[in-house]
Specification:
This protein is an alpha/beta fold and 322 residues long. It has 11 helices and 10 strands. This is NAD-P-binding protein.
Length: 322
């Protein structure tokens, strides 16, 4: 098979077209698929070829808008809407039970949804909101779907789990284990919290492959600098304006390498379907290629990965079984 070269300018649709044979017949779940975000563009590209596309959101009305937009472009797409609030563990359990009740196996799980740049807030489970939404919720969701994911395995195919991380992980000091297990408003820092959760995504991907003993291929990735609906958040806009990434009017500063949303979603689709990654499980991708050298040391440290996994299992009160 001849695969075209990808770059920072490659779109999700171009990647999906290149890997259409890999997507056909597959059942795929993408979290966080609101119109105007990377998850939506990921889902839109995959919908053209997938056997079943499951999209999620915590808001039923916005989820319906996403479904309608996908169906408008791909009328024959098989789309299933799942209400999922990753910041609330009871919602995670309910959503996982709904998926586990479906007859189809799950070939690919894409953990895309994330909360960012918010003030300190505890969830109903007593977790800091960003760590809950970006790490603990996806961790539990993945754990509960493991039987459904393993059911997709065959001698020719290894199921995949993808975690959308960020280059922002390199600007932080890694996972704040105290913030994860004993959140404290007095010690909270918005940027560090977000960056720590993105480190957690990378560590989880590495450890998931390791603990599954090859039964699951897990990957993490950096989508790049993308102007998405996340900037509807005034705090995010203020932070990025202060750092110079946005102009004073809140629009992308052309001095930086901003990607369009379809370009930002391309690396996610690559991580989910590129057959060249079969022998590179646990890899971190950037601009659609393996870029493990870009992982900060604290986010590739096996000891950190193991510690994070064990602590998160204690938080959710369940252990992964493969």
């Amino acid at each position: 098979m001849s695969i075209p070269s990808f770059s920072s300018a490659t779109t999700a649709e171009e990647v999906a077209n290149a890997f259409s044979a890999e997507i056909k017949g597959k059942n795929v779940l993408v979290t966080g698929t609101s119109v105007g975000g990377i998850g939506f563009e990921t889902a839109l590209a995959i919908a053209k070829y997938a056997n079943l596309l499951i999209i999620t959101g915590y808001n039923q009305e916005r989820l319906k808008l996403s479904e309608e937009a996908i169906k408008e472009e791909h009328p024959h797409a098989n789309v299933y809407c799942l209400v999922l609030n990753l910041s609330f563990l009871a919602s995670v359990r309910k959503a996982a039970a709904e998926i586990n009740a479906l007859p189809e196996p799950l070939h690919v799980l894409i953990n895309n949804a994330a909360s960012s740049w918010g003030d300190f807030k505890l969830t109903e489970d007593g977790l800091e909101r960003q760590y809950a939404t970006n790490h603990v919720g996806p961790f539990l969701f993945t754990k509960l779907l493991i039987p459904k994911i393993l059911a997709a395995a065959s001698p020719e195919y290894t199921p995949r789990v993808v975690f959308v991380s960020s280059v922002g992980h390199t600007h932080g000091s890694g996972v704040d284990f105290d913030a994860l297990t004993a959140p404290n408003a007095a010690k909270f820092a918005i940027r560090e919290a977000y960056r720590g959760t993105k480190s957690a995504n990378i560590l989880t991907a590495i450890e998931l492959y390791k603990r599954s003993k090859g039964k699951i291929n897990a990957y993490s990735l950096n989508p790049g600098l993308v102007y998405t609906n996340a900037f509807n958040n005034e705090t995010a806009t203020a932070i990025f304006t202060g750092a110079g990434f946005l102009d004073q009017d809140g629009r992308p500063n052309a001095a930086y390498a901003w990607k369009t949303i379809p370009q930002g979603a391309s690396t996610t689709v690559t991580a989910a379907f590129d057959p060249r990654l079969n022998d590179k499980p646990g890899a971190y991708l950037d601009d659609c290629i393996v870029a493990n050298e870009k992982i900060a040391p604290h986010s590739s440290d096996p000891a950190n990965a193991e510690k994070l996994w064990d602590l998160t299992e204690k938080i959710i009160g369940e252990k992964f079984t493969f």
